Amino acid sequence: MYQSNVAYPGYTTSQGSAMGTPTMGIPVGPNTSILQQGYPAPVILPSPPEGTWGIGIEEFQRKYNVSAKWTPYLQPLKDYVTVIVCDDSGSMRMLADPDVGDNMTRWAELKMIMNVVVEAHAAVGTVCDVYFINRGAYRNVSSFAQLSGAFAYPPSGGTNLLRVLHQVAADHCNPDLIERNVIIHIFTDGHPTNDQGREDFPAFANWLRRRPCIDKTFVSIILCTDDEYIDQLYRQLEYNPGMNLGIRGVDCTEDYRGELRDVRRTRGWNYPFSFGDYVVKTIAGAIDPSIHLIDLPAQPDCCTIS
User: SUPFAM superfamilies from the xrefs (predicted)?
Assistant: First the structure.
């Protein structure tokens, strides 16, 4: 049985650290007295009263040009705990798509999509817990403005995804305390490293296969790069039930340009797929095969969206 107070191989826990003082008596998750070594204590935001935040699903649909057939896939998010892991490592300073002459960095693109992702959750009346790889976590996020401090300075540091995922597991995936299923969205531009700063993709893949409460956790990996090698590296992790491939509960999504290309290659070059549709696919694909596999050839009992 998973115990969050037991050190993982190569990852010592710091049992004397406090996770921060909750405001207004807000629960901050199971085993919150345990921080992974070196991971900052979180910022605990007060949960807004019900019905006082978010633009509503219809306004969200209009604002981001989301197809009406996609918006119903957002409603189940209310029944899940949503965790977002943001890569704030130094490589996020690089251009998102250097081949097209666009000067937008991966970090700037992440800020843009995070704005929409948080607003999508707020539109259905739910909050997110946002974990940065290096600069700590923000709990109960209901507005992108609450993340402005984290995005105010440039990305730097390594890509120790394992450390932050162990922290997420300690906070949300205790089998004795977990009540709702958990969706973990990972925004990253590539190579996960270990505590020694060495690339360690096999250890990351192994964590996904052996993650705590695997029947109650769903993982969505969103790539902040158009690098084909990175795409192929992560794509092998994606769960394809029709072909019995990948890791259960894992979805992998390219950046918008790559996803648009793949969706239209499969569904037809005139298939409507806006940036808003892409965000819905990103945040619902890990829990709904109708969206999860829309960029791949149809399989029996899958890809029912047309």
Answer: vWA-like
